Amino acid sequence: MTSMFVDAWDPSYGASYEGGEGGGDGPASSSSQQVDVDVEVPAAEWAPIDVSSSVRAPDVVFLVDGVRRNDAGLWTAEEDGTSYAGLAASYAAGVVRCDLARGVAEMAGARVARGLFTASPTVGDLLAGTVKYEVHRVSGTGEASKLPAAVQPPLTALEIEISAAARDGGSDGADLLIVDGPLRSRRQLPRTIGYIKTQQKQYLPAAQQAIVPRLRPAQRTPVFKIETVWGGWSWYLRLPGSSGAPWSGVVRVECSPELSPDQAIELADLSGVTLPRLASSAYKDPRAPQNLVPIAGLERRLRGMLGDARVLHRVLARETARSRLTS
Questions:
Q1: Could you tell me the sign of the dihedral formed by the alpha carbons of 51, 54, 59, 60, in that order?
Q2: Spatial CA neighbour of 162 closest among 304, 308, 309, 298
Q3: Are strands 192-196 and 176-180 parallel, antiparallel or unpaired?
Q4: pLDDT tens for each residue of 106-145
Q5: What distance in Å separates the CA atoms of residue 292 and residue 196, rounded to the nearest whole number?
Q6: Whole-structure pTM value
Q7: Of 198, 167, 226, nearest to 287 (Cα)?
Q8: Backbone angles phi, psi at 117, to 5 degrees
């Protein structure tokens, strides 16, 4: 008999997994990346792994996230008659410090930045009242459709900067930093894991992929390695509070490929005793349980710090119109 499940994840955010016609069978798109599944146990011995009773969650956990918003699309009119697209964007990064021993969470730092992203060789910083959009010159022709992606590198740099500042002198080297999303260029950060909420690719061979739906809350798969430039050690973990669908509540966690296999396994065990404690509930969060409670609160604070998008758009339109009249 066919089973049906209602995913707790709000459909306005897409799906917590990107399935095909089979839906709850998991990610439908297979990755072409090479994967080593013999890291922790031989491939034939793959099975769900329970958290060992000897593993203790860190007293302090830092969670870092960033938000970005497109404030206005622009076009330049160059003196030689050419024109370039531009994007005025606001972005912010923040860190939450969770003291698990005391049950206290607090903002450990946050910063807002704004940028004007364009391939124009002539424009400079853009002033919108008291707000400055610092110019970021992109390479190539700077098509409008590609400009939003140009915001990610400076946002990532801001996340790295604020993460390092928050951790300085904070926890005697026994903390854990959770990055919301893939690690990418943040792989050099110590004691850090990347947390991927939405599963879009199948990385594992069929035999190992079949283990993932069998995970119970707080269980994980063995560690495997994605053999690419941006790959690294990775594993799947199921959070509590899922709907019961095969891939509901499943997240993929990763850590730096520069670590040894034993160090990666240690972080995998640590994630199993830490992440379930931070999982959200469906009645509080439309992206439960994957959207961790501290991350959800951080996102709300950061979006509020970006300011009113309508006001900024009006000021940008006014200031650019004024500059045309006076030029």
A1: negative
A2: 298
A3: parallel
A4: 999 999 999 999 999 999 999 988 999 999 999 988 899 9
A5: 11
A6: 0.87
A7: 198
A8: -105, 120
